[in-house]
Write a structure and sequence with these properties.
Elements: H1 2-11, E1 18-26, H2 31-43, E2 47-51, H3 60-63, E3 69-72, H4 96-114, E4 118-122, H5 131-136, E5 144-145, H6 177-187, E6 194-198, H7 205-217, E7 222-223
Parallel strand pairs: 1-2, 1-6, 1-7, 2-3, 3-4, 4-5
Helix pairs in contact: 1-6
Protein name: Polysaccharide deacetylase
InterPro entries: CE4_u4-like, Glyco_hydro/deAcase_b/a-brl
């Protein structure tokens, strides 16, 4: 119930309570992304867009607000796994140097398009990346990973999102609201920023309503982007094991 989250927010008054929003699969402007950015602007939420560089329309840089940031969402979000394997773009199905070369190219594209708003942060498509690729990330300038669920990073900071409101296993609408509010209540008790994961192209009206309500309820809290707290991290992982599309 929403009341449990309201009580948790009251109990956390006086603490440095921070939230951040990561929206995946951004490529170009459009009505749905415009809606997300308008929602963020109305509530003072700076968005972090996980951008697919191979599909990027450079016009996206013109609509991203100055306080917004972008992260590298793979190269093309193309699945290279076999037909009976879990989807992966950055898995062991290709040589790690080939994958890293693509990621380096993607990082360069984001830097050229977004300038300082492009973070050295990788969001692996489908939340999966091989250890061999992870080991090579510092060599191409990637400083941290952001996924959802469990991910191995070999000492690299991990900024995992905590809450995904979409029910991917069932009807792809809103997850059970009582469970979402209860999970949020637990997360705000932990002394670290709470990450919200969104996929603007997949939102139902119920998901939009949930985000609007959540942002409104936390208007007195600080909504930040990962570059504001990345320097304080050495290892920063969510314990969530829930599956999510990315």
């Amino acid at each position: 119930m929403i009341q449990v989250f309201e009580r948790a927010l009251r109990a956390a008054e006086g603490r440095d309570l921070r939230f951040w929003l990561r929206d995946d699969d951004a490529t170009r402007p459009g009505p749905v992304l415009d809606r997300l950015l308008a929602l963020c602007a109305r509530h003072g939420v700076p968005p972090l867009l996980a951008v697919i560089p191979a599909r990027l329309d450079p016009v996206l840089a013109d609509i991203l607000p100055p306080q917004g940031r972008v992260a590298l969402h793979g190269w093309s979000h193309q699945n290279h796994a076999g037909p009976h394997q879990k989807k992966q773009e950055l898995g062991p199905h290709r040589p790690a140097p080939v994958v890293l070369e693509e990621l380096a190219q993607g990082r360069a594209v984001l830097r050229q398009t977004f300038g300082a708003r492009a973070l050295d942060l990788l969001v692996p498509p489908w939340n999966r990346v091989s250890p061999e690729v992870t080991a090579g990330l510092p060599g191409i300038g990637i400083r941290a990973l952001s996924a959802y669920g469990k991910i191995s990073a070999r000492g690299m900071p991990v900024l995992n999102a905590d809450i995904d409101p979409i029910d991917w296993r069932a009807r792809r609408g809103l997850r059970h609201p009582a469970l979402l509010w209860q999970k949020l209540a637990l997360r705000v008790q932990v002394d670290r920023p709470v990450g919200i994961l969104t996929h603007h192209m997949d939102h139902t009206p119920e998901v939009w309503d949930f985000l609007d309500r959540l942002m409104g309820m936390t208007a007195h809290c600080a909504w930040v982007t990962p570059d504001s707290f990345l320097p304080e991290l050495t290892s920063f992982s969510s314990r969530s094991a829930d599956p999510a599309r990315a």
